[in-house]
Write a structure and sequence with these properties.
Elements lengths: L1 E6 L3 H12 L4 E4 L11 E3 L6 E3 L10 H9 L4 E3 L5 E5 L5 E3 L8 H19 L12 H6 L2 H8 L3 H15 L8 H10 L3 H5 L8 E3 L4 H11 L3 E2 L4 E6 L12 E5 L2 E10 L3 H4 L3 E3 L4 H7 L7 E8 L3 H4 L2 E7 L4 E6 L8 E8 H7 L4 H16 L8 E6 L19 H4 L10 E3 L12 H19 L2
Parallel strand pairs: 1-2, 1-12, 2-9, 6-15, 10-13, 12-19
Antiparallel strand pairs: 3-4, 5-8, 6-7, 10-11, 11-12, 14-17, 14-18, 15-16, 16-17
Helix pairs in contact: 1-9, 1-16, 2-16, 3-6, 3-7, 5-7
The structure holds flavin-adenine dinucleotide.
């Protein structure tokens, strides 16, 4: 018998457990996989003691909770390699540029700049804790982000830029999501530049030893309170009880065993909540909400070289293209400087096609794009690591879930609303940096505060 059972040992579930234990609660974390970290996962580089992340990895300014937690756990960060020129393809040819802005036509530049200005201005008006109460929320939520962009841009390059931007930030198509959700998310991450930039933005820093260390270090300190290999299949909850201190009001079934607690924190991606059987069933409004929060989709690819050969050519390893399958690429070399690693993402339109290829053809496609960006040396890969998060039983896609049109205004208030003894965590429930590691940590702290407010420490 526990005070709290946490379902899911990702950044959200583990930070909730860590805070609850610090407040004196008896906590049990049940994790379906045989490892902790969820969307945070390190993989060892071939022939090396170094690792790369195949899931979430970057941190940046404004992600105060994640940065503070990293420091508390005794971990260190290092800057993403950002020296040298960048490559961009926003028209018919690849160009190399050293300034902040790629070489594109002045008309397209003005088009992008004015749309970004408008987007940032509108986004700032969305209340982070209640986006559904934004001015014009109903009108915005009825539209897809694609419709909003079509009205605000007038050049082909401008539209293509925002298509690429959406694929890179959400791993989704602008036609998939509500314009209200897109603007909420932009505000939640501090504006478009903050979401897109390396230096000064969300891609600025990395964790020495890989970001999964955030999860494994928390789990180590929680000792045997964390049980892996425990997929939760059913939660029986008592709708009459849940707010009295010490009331045992839920039974959680995992791997054929039953566990009882006063509160249950559900810290799994929204679509996976629906795979758990709730007895009695969840309220209709919550069930409706869960049916409208699908996950994005990307295949993340790390390509390994003996050394970061692009640096000697004066290149940063960063490349963007509106037409290639690997539309976004970064230098992902470990802090020691070897081996060299380029990380790229097959997202949006491209993942649909790439996922249907054989692994050998997909690898060829990726190496073709890298060779186009960085020269023929890019074909001399010594390692190739890809991860399709949509194929993961206990994730179902990435980077996170997004809201389809007419979801936030009709069901948004249910996102964090407690149901009896059940509390909802996970990055998708965050107000700041929703979709990011920082947002997952925020959600863990929020559910802790909710439980402590009811029961006392
Ligand atoms: C490829 C990729 C790149 C990303 N890049 C970045 C980045 O650069 N920066 C950034 O900040 N964020 C990034 N993210 C997003 C970031 O990783 C997530 O926001 C964060 O890790 C989510 O944490 P979470 O705890 O909310 O969810 P999760 O990490 O998904 O944790 C949920 C946990 O619940 C478990 N689970 C699921 N179902 C059950 C069940 N029935 N019973 C028990 N356990 C269950 C899962 O196994 C998992 O461990 C990226 C994500 C991916 C996949």
């Amino acid at each position: 018998m526990s005070d709290v059972i946490v379902v899911g040992a990702g950044a959200a579930g583990l930070s909730a457990a860590r805070e609850l234990v610090a407040a004196g609660k008896d906590v049990l974390v049940l994790e379906a996989r045989d490892r902790v970290g969820g969307r945070l996962l390190n993989e060892r580089l071939p022939g090396s003691d170094e690792v790369v992340e195949v899931g979430g990895q970057w941190l940046g300014p404004g992600q105060d909770r994640a940065l503070a937690l990293i420091a508390e756990l005794g971990l260190k960060t290092f800057p993403t390699y950002d020296g040298g020129d960048k490559i961009a393809e926003f028209g018919s040819k690849l160009t190399r540029y050293s300034s902040r802005i790629p070489k594109i036509s002045p008309l397209a530049l003005i088009d992008i700049a004015q749309a970004q200005l408008r987007l940032d201005k509108d986004a700032r008006r969305i209340p982070l804790d209640k986006p559904w109460e934004a001015p014009h929320a109903a009108e915005l939520d009825r539209r897809t982000f694609a419709e909003w962009l079509d009205r605000r841009t007038c050049t082909r390059t401008g539209r293509a830029f925002f298509q690429l931007m959406t694929e890179a930030v959400w791993a989704a198509d602008p036609g998939d999501m509500s314009a209200l959700w897109a603007q909420f998310y932009i505000h939640s991450g501090g504006g478009l530049d903050s979401l897109l930039n390396t230096r000064g933005g969300a891609q600025q820093d990395r964790v020495v030893g890989g970001t999964q260390l955030i999860a494994t270090t928390m789990a180590d300190a929680l000792e045997d309170r964390v049980r892996t290999g425990m997929p939760v299949s059913e939660i029986r909850w008592d709708p009459q009880r849940g707010s009295e201190a010490g009331a045992l009001s839920a039974t959680v079934v995992a791997a054929g065993k039953e566990f009882r607690a006063a509160h249950v924190v559900v810290a799994v991606p929204p679509p996976l909540v629906s795979r758990i059987r709730f007895t009695p069933p969840l309220p209709a409004v919550r069930s409706q909400l869960l049916q409208r929060l699908p996950m994005g989709w990307t295949i993340k690819v790390n390509v390994v070289y003996d050394e970061p050969f692009w640096r000697a050519k004066g290149l940063s390893g960063q490349a963007n293209s509106i037409s290639r399958s690997l539309g976004t690429v970064f230098d992902n070399t470990p802090p020691s400087g070897a081996p060299g690693v380029l990380v790229g993402f097959l997202e949006g339109r491209h993942v649909q096609t790439a996922a249907r290829l054989s692994p050998a053809d997909r690898r060829r496609l990726v190496l073709d794009d890298l060779a186009a960006y960085f020269g023929a040396d890019a074909r001399d890969a010594v390692g190739y690591i890809e991860r399709d998060w949509a194929a993961e039983e206990y994730t179902g896609g990435c980077y996170g879930a997004f809201a389809t049109p007419m979801t936030l205004t009709r069901f948004g208030p249910e996102l964090r609303r407690p149901v009896g003894p059940l509390r909802w965590a996970g990055t998708e429930t965050a107000t700041r940096w929703a979709g990011y590691i920082d947002g997952a940590i925020e959600s863990g702290r929020r559910v802790t505060a909710e439980i402590l407010a009811e029961t006392g420490p």
